[in-house]
Amino acid sequence: MIQQAQGILREQFGYESFRTGQEEVIGKLLQGEDTLAIMPTGGGKSLCYQIPALMFHGITIVVSPLISLMKDQVDALQAAGIGATFINSSLSLRETNERLNLIRSGSGDIKLLYIAPERLEAAGFKALLEEVEVSLFAIDEAHCISQWGHDFRPSYLRLCEHLNEMGNRPLVVALTATATSAVADDISELLGIRQENIVKTGFSRDNLGFQVVKGQDKDRFLMDYVKRNETISGIVYAATRKEVERLEALFVKEGVKAAKYHAGLSDAEREDAQEAFLYDDISVIVATNAFGMGIDKSNVRFVIHYNLPRNMEAYYQEAGRAGRDGLSSDCILLFSPQDSHLQHYLIEQSELSDERKENEFRKLRDMTGYGYTEICLQKYIVQYFGETREDCGKCSNCLDTREAADVTIEAQQVFSCVKRMGERFGKVLIAKVLTGSADQKVKQWRFDSLSTYGLMKNRSQKDVLQLIDYLAAEKFLAAAEGQFPSLHLTEKAVSVLRGELPVMRKAAREAQRITANVDAGLFELLREARRELASRDHVPPYIIFSDESLREMCRYLPQTEAEMLQIKGIGTVKLEKYGGVFLQILQNEKMNQ
């Protein structure tokens, strides 16, 4: 059966071989095993259920959290000649009934049906599921099931109940890009998926260049970077609606084609912004985290976070929207220590339970550590998710060749102070003691009598706090649980105090410009042809052909239909629909060489 799956991969989707993990997930499903797939954004999760859906007799139900995601997926499938549709609140009652009747007819025209989790609570839809054969139930963004995940949704948790209520429970596949081991265990337990059927392909994204930019004017850096890369698509994330409004206005003033997206806009305004971005009518979209879950735009070349996200899961999911086509892309965090104070405040003011708040504070500390660490940024990320890897060699930390300064003495002063304060207090009070503050709390605890009091009086509290954060990021200091955690020494810090281990620290590095390695003129001709076809067919350009496909065309200059089929992402259906236009351009290019 896996040979049949490979044939579908080649004929329908235009790929010669499976990506890591895809064949394993598909193989388990074809053997009738419920499966959990944990694969990075851009790792090809969708094919893990789309190919089995075409092989199974009945329909496949795909649970998806956002309307935009459903439309994206369905557009792409229909462009490849595959029967797919969605039912959500964007449809009229007549349109919904037409689609339900088509599925109910059993004609086989529809193989995949995309729905929101809330749809399963409608009595009419439950009745439909009893009438038709549901072979596979795919749960996308499955981390939403777990209350320990970063985006828990009660409607997702109820999926488990709905599945168990179905008279003939279908095969289940759950898929996510961001699940720690604890979240993965929670998902598998709730859905009854056996441990041996959890497929993890690793969290590394080798085509992404992660960068942390510190100590710079954020606005100036952002404008310079975007103007240097004005011909490519990118997302800029900001923490608040007000910041999104300000940055979008700044882009427009500077002549950058940009739009804004946040929950305070009307549905029509958000849809217009998203459509403009998907269709390459604008190059930059400025958004809060309300934008992007499941957005399948493959040619996003950069994702810039203007503010610190709340946790690593959210950051990696948002940053992972860059480079879904496998091409080199930038993921830049404009790091400012005060951003963590905003996120801390937002958690504090939320209506979460005390237990969940404590979990969120811990996640925020790990996210803040990312801004301070000097180890490989990819390594930091995958370690957070419980894995290991070698240095990536391309992140801002790996590329920073400047010599590190020896800060062993300063580190020893911090560690000594933490120890003398009984390892019972947080970083703010520690910094006040070290800088010789006359704060009432310092006097109340008589810390002004400690030998470490005022050891760093020639430095600002801000500098000392940043040093403490750096030492925590490098695992010299560990934090207890809670909103205002106390710090204690790790074994690494003890080794430093004994003089057995030095502490080195260096500054961050400025982000670099993306460079292309194909004929820019030919690539632009192909992009323009793609844009015209997309406008004609009312679909986003990347659904015609991805940037990766266009770059391969530039590189290999295929001259025949047979040669076009060797280009990644081109199957027989797309070749028939679109191939002629691109072949003509490529043949002309060859003649002019």
CATH class of the largest domain: Alpha Beta
Low-pLDDT sequence parts: none
Shape: globular
Quaternary organisation of the protein chains: single chain
Largest sheet: 7 strands, parallel
Instruction: Report the total helices.
Output: 27
Strands in their spatial order, largest beta sheet: 3-4-2-5-6-1-7
Within CATH, the superfamily of the largest domain carries the name P-loop containing nucleotide triphosphate hydrolases
Percentage of residues in DSSP E strands: 5-15%
CATH architecture classification name of the largest domain: 3-Layer(aba) Sandwich
What integer value in Å does the Rg equal?
26 Å
Mean of residue pLDDT? Answer: 90
What level of helicity do the residues show?
40-55%
CATH topology of the largest domain: Rossmann fold
Provide the domain count.
Answer: 4
Family: Belongs to the helicase family. RecQ subfamily.
GO molecular function: helicase activity
Domain Helicase ATP-binding: 26-197
InterPro entries: DEAD/DEAH_box_helicase_dom (IPR011545), DNA_helicase_ATP-dep_RecQ (IPR004589), DNA_helicase_ATP-dep_RecQ_bac (IPR006293), Helicase_ATP-bd (IPR014001), Helicase_C-like (IPR001650), HRDC-like_sf (IPR010997), HRDC_dom (IPR002121), HRDC_dom_sf (IPR044876)
